[in-house]
Design brief:
This protein has 563 residues and is mostly beta strands. The protein has two helices and 46 strands. It folds into five domains: 28-120, Immunoglobulin-like (Sandwich); 124-253, Sandwich (Immunoglobulin-like); 255-337, Immunoglobulin-like (Sandwich), CATH 2.60.40; 354-458; 463-562, Carboxypeptidase-like, regulatory domain (Immunoglobulin-like, Sandwich), CATH 2.60.40. The radius of gyration is 28 Å and the shape is flat.
Length: 563
């Protein structure tokens, strides 16, 4: 990871190119029909079909005829994404078998007419009443049906809104429609609060005395739970209509968190971040603050939940140095707390020097090793466990590297590392060994400094390729190829031993740089983008997947037939 970033910065200097889209004028056509996804499909008139891709700027939209048909003509050869929508139905894209699945672009050649059928499931409908603290109808409350989905870009499951809704009316009644079949949590958001942000703080009064504790109207989950873990799940079938999904609003107390950060003489600019560690809908923003010169800090308006606080500081820059100078050794500390509405005071965080990972770059193969210039730059390749956004510094000197200012803890990559699935120039990342173990084969968890790391690059890599056909020998178009290790300890987000790829219009696929080991390979149609990193998905695929072994930098062909 560390060395791959360095090599990427040096070698991946692509020249500027003209990215202006070419005019979308051609002889290809995409036609089809939109039908209901019922046991007896029927054409859907006045559905909206949109097409985008292959330089088509802007995209086009067509309205289906009485028989559900549509046509897009005058297209250039290329790949296009189509979506179909109609009131009361679930919006679907080309190649999608269920909502949330990654769409498939339709390939069309010059002079070709590509025909397809888009099937729309009937949307489910739920209604209910929102009640205020006195049990009276609450108007203007935003209500959402939340569905839990795996986020391929984040490697975790989170709740997101689904269906179409409007605020509760003067009777407190809401209506959510267009819901795909599935299980939901119903959320009610007070008018003065948006998810992730506090609303107006109020104070209660008892016997003429105003309370010294503030409260806010909380996001509440059906039937009246203040946190999502205690919400009642609502299962909806396709086309089902259900009423009586009521929600009672609540106030929750907010707390003030305070304490002191201590460090070494000369450290300054102490920053604090506070992030939720329990499950919340969407993406909860990170709270931040700065400690005063005496190290004291305060974080206000914190609702109940579990949190991790990270404090960090950098050594003061030498006098006269520019502001943009790379930071010196980073001091850091972290602490986990549970907030239940009561203030928490006198927290103590003691900053310790950041970790240092240093070692050698080794290049194996017939090509000469690349010349690496000296460099020092931030290393924002990973996301810290507390979402602190801290970027360690990376130094390259000849064939050695050093990363300092690393906050101890688990890290997660934003995306697949360069050198793992795609080469950096002519080089593939083969291993990153520290303290006798390969850091690429487990979730990255840095707890101590390392001075003997070895990052090995090779100019050759394994090449697994093949075709995917249906039982009639035709190219299958709507699935992923998923290859994964039989070792369950390697089933983590962005693991180099787990990969999913789309195959092309001819059913061909190619996967490079799988390390030696025993694997399983399967075609999976019912997947979201990045869903192959979900251990539950891999368990499901394991029983029917074919066995395959990678022994080194070899070429291997494995064809699959989907029956």
């Amino acid at each position: 990871m560390i060395a791959a970033l360095a090599l990427t910065a040096i070698m991946m200097q692509a020249p500027a190119r003209d990215v202006r889209p070419a005019p979308a004028v051609g002889t290809a056509s995409v036609t089809g029909v939109v039908v209901s996804a019922d046991s007896q499909a029927r054409p859907l008139r006045r559905a909206r079909v949109s097409i985008n891709g292959a330089g088509l700027v802007p995209g086009r939209t067509a309205i289906t005829a009485d028989d559900g048909t549509f046509a897009f003509t005058g297209l250039r050869a290329g790949r296009y994404l189509l979506t179909a929508a109609k009131e009361g139905y679930v919006t679907m894209a080309s190649g999608v078998m269920r909502p949330g699945q990654a769409p498939v672009r339709v390939a069309v050649a010059d002079g070709e007419v590509q025909r397809l059928t888009l099937r729309l499931p009937r949307g489910a409908v739920m209604t209910g009443t929102i009640l205020d603290l006195d049990g009276q109808p609450a108007e203007g409350i935003a209500v959402s049906a939340l569905v839990r989905r795996y986020v391929g870009s984040q490697g975790e499951r989170r709740y997101f809104g689904a269906g179409t809704t409007s605020p509760s009316d003067d009777r407190g009644v809401y209506r959510i429609y267009g819901l795909p079949e599935g299980e939901y949590v119903v959320s009610a958001q007070p008018q003065n609060r948006q998810r992730g942000f506090l609303g107006s703080e109020v104070r209660t009064m008892s016997r003429g005395v105003v309370s010294d504790k503030g409260v806010i109207l909380s996001e509440v989950f059906h039937p009246g739970a203040p946190d999502i873990a205690r919400a009642t799940r609502v299962a909806m079938r396709a086309g089902e209509e259900r009423s009586g999904i009521d929600v009672q609003l609540h106030y929750v107390p907010i707390a003030t968190i305070s304490g002191t950060v201590s460090g070494r003489p000369g450290w300054d600019h102490v920053a604090l971040t506070m992030a939720r560690t329990d499950e919340v809908p969407g993406f909860e923003p990170v709270r931040s603050a700065h400690a005063a010169t005496d190290g004291r800090f305060t974080l206000n308006g914190v609702p109940p939940g579990r949190y991790r606080i990270v404090a960090s500081s950098r050594a003061a820059s030498p006098p006269g140095s520019p502001v943009t100078m790379a930071p010196g050794t980073l001091g850091a500390a972290s602490l986990e707390i549970t907030v239940d509405g009561e203030d928490i005071a006198n927290l103590a965080l003691s900053l310790e020097p950041g970790l240092v990972i240093s070692g050698r770059l080794v290049f194996e193969g017939t090509r000469p090793a690349p010349a690496l210039p000296s460099m020092r730059a931030p290393m924002p390749v990973v996301l810290n466990f507390a979402n602190a956004g801290l970027a360690p510094s990376l130094n390259i000197e000849g064939s050695t590297f050093k990363a300092d200012g690393i906050v101890p803890g688990p890290y997660r990559t934003f995306a697949a590392m360069q050198g793992v699935r795609t080469p950096i120039g002519a080089w593939w990342l083969k291993s990153l060994v520290a303290n006798g173990r390969d850091l690429l084969d487990a979730p990255l968890d840095l707890r101590q400094s390392v001075d003997d790391a070895v990052a090995t690059f090779a100019d050759a890599a394994s090449d697994l390729s093949g075709t995917v056909k249906d039982a009639q020998g035709n190219a299958a178009l709507d699935a992923f190829i998923v290859v994964f290790s039989t070792d369950r300890t390697t089933w983590f987000f962005n693991s180099r031993r787990v990969v999913g790829v789309r195959y092309d219009a001819q059913g061909r696929y190619s996967i490079r740089n799988l390390p030696p080991g025993e694997y399983r390979i399967a075609a999976a149609a019912d997947l979201e983008q990045g869903g192959w990193f979900d251990p539950a998905v891999l368990e499901r695929l394991l029983a029917s997947a074919a066995a395959i072994a990678i022994t080194g930098a070899e070429k291997k062909i494995h064809d699959l037939v989907i029956r």
